[in-house]
Write a structure and sequence with these properties.
The chain has strands at residues 4-7, 10-13, 18-24, 31-39, 46-52, 57-59, 67-72, 77-82, 91-99, 105-107, 111-116. By secondary structure, the protein is mainly β.
Length: 117
């Protein structure tokens, strides 16, 4: 059973930074891509950033230039560096891992990020 454990969330003032981590139970090369999603109260879950096994990345327009996704294959961990945080970034952030061949995905339990004005 695959486990994804997120950490690094918390409360920060607007303009501040946080780094989220997603540690997988085993090699992340088992996944074609890994990504960070977020869900704010009353809103749908949305993609924030993703990185493929080959290292290609994509970002939501709302976070481009502020957030950076990266992966450490040796540690089986994916990171999300979040800078210049805004109150609208407040949400529960989830890690997702996509299985090769579109055979499904795994989700972490989520970590709360709160940005105060």
């Amino acid at each position: 059973q695959v486990q994804l454990v997120e950490s690094g969330g918390g409360l920060v003032q607007a303009g501040g930074s946080l780094r989220l981590s997603c540690a997988a139970s085993g090699s992340i090369f088992r996944f074609s891509a890994m990504g960070w999603y977020r869900q704010a109260p009353g809103k749908q879950r949305e993609l924030v950033a993703a990185v493929t096994a080959g290292g290609s990345t994509n970002y939501a327009d709302s976070v481009k230039g502020r957030f950076t996704i990266s992966r450490d294959n040796a540690k089986d961990t994916v990171y999300l560096q979040m800078n210049s945080l805004k109150p609208e970034d407040t949400a529960v952030y989830y890690c997702k891992a996509e299985r090769w061949g579109s055979l499904g995905s795994y989700w972490g339990q989520g970590t709360q990020v709160s940005v105060s004005v």
